[in-house]
Design goal:
Blueprint lengths: L1 H16 L8 H7 L46 H23 L5 H29 L8 H14 L1
Helix pairs in contact: 2-4, 3-4
Amino acid sequence: MILVTHALKHLTNFAFSKIRVLKGTKLYAIINQKCPKCREGELFVDRNPYHLKKLFDMPERCEKCNQLYQLEPSFFYGAMYVNYGFTVGIALAVFLAMNVLGNNFELHHYLIGIIIAIFILAPLTFRLGKSVWINMFIKYNPNALDEEEKAQALNRGQ
């Protein structure tokens, strides 16, 4: 199990490190799981989704721009719908890949392949679902870090 976790960690780090997206885009914030407002702060406590003990841990606010992540109670329930879309996409991709590899699979082979793929990718889709969901509601502000520094300076001056 440790070997599988180690391999998945390197696979996801490799996959995400090769994706070069402009910093000011929503896609950058979603893929890199960054704060949607400043694109600097981390959306999750631990960047590796396969550290299962910290899978669900999110800071209350962005450490860079102080953006509140939980916009309202139960805010991230909507992320389940996004995650469902990712899961359906994975199921379709596995089904199509198995069809391309060979058309002699029985129904239970397809189900086993789909279940294994969904199980292995579940931590990743969970995090991406939350990242997509929060990015739908918070707009990027290129001046967010400057505004936060000014607000902190005013608070110190009072």
